[in-house]
Amino acid sequence: SNGYRLVTIVKNGTLTTCAVNINATNASPTIINVSANMLLGNGDYFEVYVAQNSTTTLTLTNSYISIIQMK
After folding, report:
1. Are 61 and 16 within 8 A, CB to CB?
2. Predicted confidence pLDDT, tens digits, the chain (71 residues)
3. How far apart are CA 15 and CA 28, in angstroms?
4. Of 2, 13, 54, 59, which alpha carbon lies 20 to 30 A from 44's?
5. What distance in Å separates the CA atoms of residue 8 and residue 34, rounded to the nearest whole number?
6. How far apart are CA 54 and CA 63, in angstroms?
């Protein structure tokens, strides 16, 4: 379906650290790669939100997350 696809990463419920918004087409599935560098301390957390605005219901499939600690 046409429309936009949006992926947002939010730190501690309030700080948007990354947002990717792309226009989709009917030709193929939409693939979105998102990355963000975040300094996380004890008690910090992040959430990932997805949204779309086509006129039909869409299903999120094959979602993956990778977390790497750098020292």
Report:
1. no
2. 678 999 999 999 998 989 999 998 777 788 888 888 888 889 999 999 999 998 888 888 888 888 777 77
3. 32
4. 59
5. 8
6. 20
